[in-house]
Amino acid sequence: MTHAPITVTLTGAGGQIGYAALFRIAAGDLFGPDQPVSLRLLEIPQGMRAAEGAALELADCAFPTLAGVDITDDANVAFDGTNVALLIGSRPRTAGMERGDLLAANGAIFGPQGSAINAHADDDVRVVVVGNPANTNALIAQQHAPDVPAERFTALTRLDHNRAVGLLAAEAGAPVADIAGVTIWGNHSATQYPDLSHATVRGDAALAAVDPAWARGAYIERVAQRGAEIIEVRGGSSVASAANAAIEHTRDWVLGTGPRAAGRWTSAAIVSRGEYGVPEGLISSFPVTSSDGAWSIVDGLEIDEFSRERIDASVAELSAERDAVRELGLMP
Ligand SMILES: NC(=O)c1ccc[n+]([C@@H]2O[C@H](COP(=O)([O-])OP(=O)(O)OC[C@H]3O[C@@H](n4cnc5c(N)ncnc54)[C@H](O)[C@@H]3O)[C@@H](O)[C@H]2O)c1
Ligand SMILES: O=C(O)C[C@H](O)C(=O)O
Questions:
Q1: Where do the Lactate/malate dehydrogenase C-terminal domain residues begin and end (predicted)?
Q2: Is residue 329 part of a domain?
Q3: In terms of domains, do 162 and 127 share one?
Q4: Domain range for residue 68?
């Protein structure tokens, strides 16, 4: 292993998703078996012991790809020279709440972290916001980091994407590998739009492989409510699948989506430049591919009236969340 270590900062490292993600990242799941990683764990004082315990266990794994672990409750230290920042630390919702109900409680975390990233992170920093409500928290962080290119701030909708692919595969009786062209549009919330208009199953239109009424009814509801379903069945919000999605999002961003991109794409919430009628500046989910460390939005997809209404509804919610955090004084 001759590469210099990549520094990865995890916030909320003592929490559930942090615990699920740390060992996979340390084992090389982000950048492969030849790329060492140096981990920075950011926690609040109440979470420090849990993070310290995780660090002891990391040492006990003796991963060849793990170059070091530092634990801190100071964001300025945690983001110093960081290349990848996974912003997980924040409160999860409980049964009966929408993710947007966490705006006031969690939004306040992301401004100071954005400022610390702005002041201390490496020039190539890439930020992935997992903490809910993820899109708007990412916007808050991005707005506090004026010296970092806006496109380096993203929010996780890969979990929704994976859910959408998995549920379509199950309905069509096809392996996941035979599914392509699924898109999550908009917000990581109940208004998100899992879109099968351009999806294929074994190369044929998904809307011919499954009942189109299901695809444009129960399916959308099931994907959009999957987080609530997990909370109800598991008694707590998703953990391992969320960590997996954060790793896949980051790996694809940094290493590229590669040859998969022929007719295939994934979904990520990235800063809009006005594509598909999404107002500039919002961090909204799009169909994306990645190469040379940058996301590109898949262009030229036809948007029918049904899709237009749903994309617009989710984007309207993002605009309302942005206005709400402005009113709360959480944006500069
Ligand atoms: N975007 C997604 O797809 C997705 C999926 C699952 C969960 N989530 C969200 O991820 C977040 C974390 O979930 P979890 O299950 O790990 O929660 P958790 O309660 O188990 O862990 C959260 C951790 O964050 C820490 N924390 C709180 N404030 C912090 C701060 N300012 N700096 C650093 N750390 C801080 C807490 O001490 C705790 O250890 C929640 O907001 C949850 O809703 C998002
Ligand atoms: O739904 C939640 O609150 C957790 C997470 O955002 C999820 O989608 O599982």
A1: 157-325
A2: no
A3: no
A4: 6-155
Ligand 1 atom with the smallest distance to the CA of 238 is 6
Q: Assess if residue 331 is contained within a domain.
A: no
200/133 same-domain check: no
Q: How many CB atoms lie within 10 A of CB 6?
A: 19
- Same domain flag for 63 and 122: yes
From the CA of 328, how far away is ligand 1's center (Å)?
21
How far away, in angstroms, is 171 Cα from ligand 2 center?
22
Contacts of 128 (CB under 8 A, 6+ apart): 84, 85, 86, 87, 154, 155, 156, 246, 249, 250, 253
Do 212 and 140 share a structural domain?
no
CA distance 264 to 290: 11
For the annotated binding site for NAD(+), the residues are 12-18, 106, 113, 130-132
Q: Is residue 326 part of a domain?
A: no
ipTM given for this complex: 0.99
Query: Does the annotation mark 188 as catalytic?
Result: yes
pLDDT at 264: 86
Q: What is the dihedral sign for C-alpha 139, 145, 146, 151?
A: negative
- Domain end (from 127, 155, 183): 155
DSSP 8-state symbol, 150: G
pLDDT in tens, 83-127: 999 999 999 999 999 888 999 889 899 999 999 999 999 999 999
Q: Which residues line ligand 1 (CB under 6 A)?
A: 11-12, 14-18, 42-44, 46-47, 50, 88-93, 106, 109, 130-132, 134, 156, 159, 188, 237-239, 242, 245
Catalytic residue, chosen from 144, 161, 188, 198, is: 188
Each residue's pLDDT tens digit, 66-92? 999 999 999 999 999 999 999 999 999
Let me know whether 310 and 281 are in one domain. yes
